[in-house]
Design brief:
By secondary structure, this protein is of the alpha/beta class. It is built from 8 helices and 12 strands. A hairpin with a 4-residue loop joins β8 and β9.
């Protein structure tokens, strides 16, 4: 298997160090924490730097899986990281030999799988690790959201890094409507030193109908479709596609 966005933004320690500054706790994590109420175990598939993973582990047994060692190094060192079982692994192929009451895949990590075959493999991993009464949730951007039709996009924002101080973060992207693949570059400029870091990556946009078909094929059933992490119902022009479900 090689049809995956194998980008340095998460695998390169010099870039991974900026992840938490650019991606703060948000409504996605709040949603997952609420969904986790009553769950005795959880799997964070694509856990990244582990902020949500460690929070879930305060009251339950939690495993965090990610293919990027640089991200896992940050996760292991964070407060509460010692309560999590961290696994360096690929969401398409990892098999842990146990099941979970909740499986989460946030941060649009599902979109790094650039073919239908690899998306199906990741969904099959979810199905194989769900307990009989377990629930899953993941997010993927809606290709029909009006904003995605802006073929080229760029932005710059000011952030604070706990050790490096003020940084400027920029991103530039190009969306190919024919393939549904967004190619993008993220970069960081440390203002105190002038140092610059950047990396490129690709993600795939998939329609709700195709997602539903693939999930049904691997034995997953959707209970609710949300269009954002505030829990609003999905509609054709929603920004996000967020299924919540169980085993079929």
């Amino acid at each position: 298997m090689n049809s995956i966005s194998d980008d340095p933004l998460y695998r390169d320690p010099s870039l991974a160090q900026f992840y938490d500054s650019a991606n703060r706790w948000g409504p996605d994590f709040d949603f997952c924490m609420t969904l986790a109420e009553g769950a005795q175990s959880a799997l964070d598939l694509g856990c990244g730097t582990g902020e949500l993973t460690a929070a879930l582990a305060t009251t339950r047994a939690v495993t965090g899986v990610d293919p990027a060692a640089a991200m896992l190094d940050i996760a292991k060192a964070r407060p509460g990281g010692d309560k999590v079982q961290w696994v360096e692994g690929d969401a398409r192929t990892v098999r842990l030999g146990k099941t979970f009451d909740l499986i989460v895949l946030t941060g649009h990590a599902f979109q790094v799988f650039l073919t239908e075959e690899d998306q199906r493999a990741a969904l099959a991993t979810i199905a194989s690790h769900l307990s009989p009464t377990g629930r899953f949730v993941f997010d993927t951007r809606n290709p029909d959201f009006q904003g995605e039709r802006d073929v080229r996009h760029s932005s710059v924002r000011r952030l604070e890094h706990p050790e490096l101080g003020a940084i400027e973060a920029f991103d530039e992207s190009h969306y190919d409507e024919a393939t549904g693949i967004l190619s993008y570059e993220n970069g960081y400029h440390v203002l105190s030193t002038g140092a610059r870091f950047s990396g490129r990556a690709k993600i795939l946009y998939t329609s709700r109908d195709k997602l539903l078909s693939m999930m049904e094929d691997v034995g997953l059933a959707v209970e609710a479709w949300h269009g954002d992490w505030d829990g609003n119902p999905f509609h054709a022009q929603a920004r996000e596609i967020i299924p919540v479900g169980r085993l079929a």
